[in-house]
Amino acid sequence: MRDKQIEDLKDYKYGFSTDIESFKAPKGLNEEVIRFISNIKKEPDWLLQWRLKAFERLKVLKEPDWQKPKYPKIDYQDLYYYSAPKSFKEKPKNLEDLDPKLLETYKKLGIPLQEQKRLNGIAVDAVFDSVSVATTFKDTLTEKGIIFCSISEAIQKHPDLVRKYLGSVIPITDHFFATLNSAVFTDGSFVYIPPNVKCPMELSTYFRINASDTGQFERTLIIADKGSYVSYLEGCTAPMRDENQLHAANVELIALDDAEIKYSTVQNWYPGDKDGKGGIYNFVTKRGMCKGKNSKISWTQVETGSAITWKYPSCILKGDNSIGEFYSIAITNNHQKADTGTKMIHLGKNTKSKIISKGISAGKSDMTYRGLVDISKNASNSTNYTQCDSLLMGNKCGAHTVPYIKNKNSNSNIAHEATTSKISEDQLHYCQQRGLNQEEAVGLIVNGFCKEVLQQLPMEFAVEAQKLVGISLEGSVG
Amino acid sequence: MEQKLKTDFDKFISMSNFSNQEIKLKKEALDNFLKNGFPSRKLENWKFSDIKQIIQKNIGELTFYNDYNIKNEINDEIFIKEIEHNKIVIVNGKVERLSFEYEESNKINLTTLENFNQNPNDDNSLLSLNNSFSNKVHNILVKKNYSFKKPLIIYQITNEKVSNTNINFQLKFELEENSSIKIINLSDDNSEKNFINNLFNFNLGKNAILKNYKIDKKSNTNIKYDYSCINQKENSISETFIFSSGSDYKKNEVSCNLEGQYSSAFINGIHLLSKNKHHEIRTNTNHLYENTKSYQLIKSVIDDSSKSVYQGKIYVDSKAQKTDGYQLSKAVLLNEQAEFNAKPELEIYADDVKCSHGSASGSLDEDSIFYLMSRGLDKKTAKELLINGFLLDVVEKITDEEIKKLLKNMIGLN
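^ Those are the sequences you sent over. The predicted structure of the assembly is below.
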């Protein structure tokens, strides 16, 4: 019996779930539930009204259906929109107060908070289901005037900032999933970097989906004030579940004059088993606004998990001379499907954007790069460079490239390149001749293929990501 | 519009002598069109060019009835004199003359047939419209091992007799094994504000060669949709060249189905737009078998408040290993108001393939202009020279020397 359990869990390194009694809102999506969430989080009235407005809008919106990966219809009335570990009704003051079982969970994930916080120099704001567990390294950050906390806390302590910026990049009138998030979001991270401050460390959040049937609706808001800099890491793993779980997060970034935000993601949620059963639906809206002059937003993502990944981290280049960047590696194996890419909307003068996307598909998976580059009439002297490369392994998978290019300004230049190929026999042969087995050889070549993107990741992530690339492709060759 | 369509259709049927079977097919096609209507931007393929809106804005109410019983005079002046050629003359959608004077008559078989078989999954409602209102469809069959001695020029003429009218036309070519043909499709429009809907269907047998050159140069206010469907067997080659410049609105759509191994398709196109024109080229190359090859090169020069669109898709089936697909689109924007939209798309299901696409758009290179001006040219001439060179690149791809020379003169590129 035990052997069988181990066997079941072997494939997915992070597949387990902790038995913490969850505190749930009643099932279903209606005004009551939204009031319940708002009430339990002791939110001010304006936010409740904001949520309700989003909910009103949601009633008339239709789920989009233009995407490549199709999925069974989601019954939004059959989901729990709020769940918090029970022992969390009173928030712990320090790490030692935490539920030992929860700490155990993190240990398995490879982030033992107590040890890692000092070793890594990272402030970790871990989200366990929907409520922030603990926030570390507060002191160092507070000294600099940096606010890094859960969004619930920010709503209580910094309502003016939240009110000013929440929904300013992703309005409640946006598409279906973004609006759904606006109506029912439970928790997430909030970052504010004051003017002329360089954040001394990488800020990081580990997400974790736990309770079964709980859609996660994270909301992240990052504001970099004039002349500031921040690098933010987001990494996720989720326990093994049979039923599909919906994850519709919203991430908003705002960069004011001369500010820079670097946002990195490693996503390794449960992709479903070999037959395509189960797995997470990752429908995330990420959007950054280069609001001020000379501002810069850079997205880096390594997407290896989830049954379906459907997201387009975007940059709105509003300020003159602003820069948007997008670096992506997306790997799909078995029955995974990904439809991901970016949008670069050039509104200001002299704006620049760069897109590097690497897609790898193996098994029976399907991968699509979909992107938009839009240079508006007033965006003189803007440039864009796009490169998307796809690698195919086997003839049962697909790789697709769907770029939309719109140029309305004669002083601007857009260049787009895309290639699709397979790992060359020569390269494989060479590596194997040097003593690597086939799997190692493929891993090495794929890592080389991804290097341009991996380089963009902060050190702590780069190592993990490199390993992930290898793990994700296990069993796809031969 | 629905009522108009129905009454025009009844009138059209009563004035023609179609067989019952043909009428039945036409009726079905009409029902299909009534169901879907003109394509709008809601459809992915029409995202950049909403033809429904364009027709409404520029023409308004359309007449669908077109009298094929009128005899039109053909003015021989319009014929190309530089080269000897066979002719098909089409006036307002009616075939007025078919002459293959340079060819052996027993090698060509001319018939008329029922409508183009539309794939039931194809949601292109303009094909339905064409099927329901087009006159008898001519089928030109080129027999085994026969190569056309002279090019065939298709003159597509519209005269002042028609306006605010929808003209539908189809033509079908069958090329048997080892046969070949060169076609120049020349538009000569003297009419205003019509919606012209063309459909060309080519079936290429083993080793067959099709060279197809489409020229739309004469300035006119018509709205045009031109669809070419090319099905290719083993070892066949198709070459399509599009020069798109004259009409106010034009969408050229070319679909190549590479069904046999070692078949290849080449599509090259030019958009030369000024004033307020809106042109689109959409290419669909479907690699359905091993060892097939496709190549697309599209260049646009866009002036004033014109708009150029390129949508290109390379589809590779899981069977089509060793596919070689390449696609490049480039655009030069000469004016602040000009616009270029592109959607180069790859959809690939086989791993042993070499597919790539590139797209670039921007202004003329300032350094190059500076260089030419420092050599004594004025700015205008320098720009012209650069544009000339930019477009010549595409014209040079034409493989038939005689036709290349003719087209160069016609377009005014040297």
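Chain A has twelve helices and 24 strands. Residues 13-93+121-311 of chain A form one domain.

Shout if you want it in another format.
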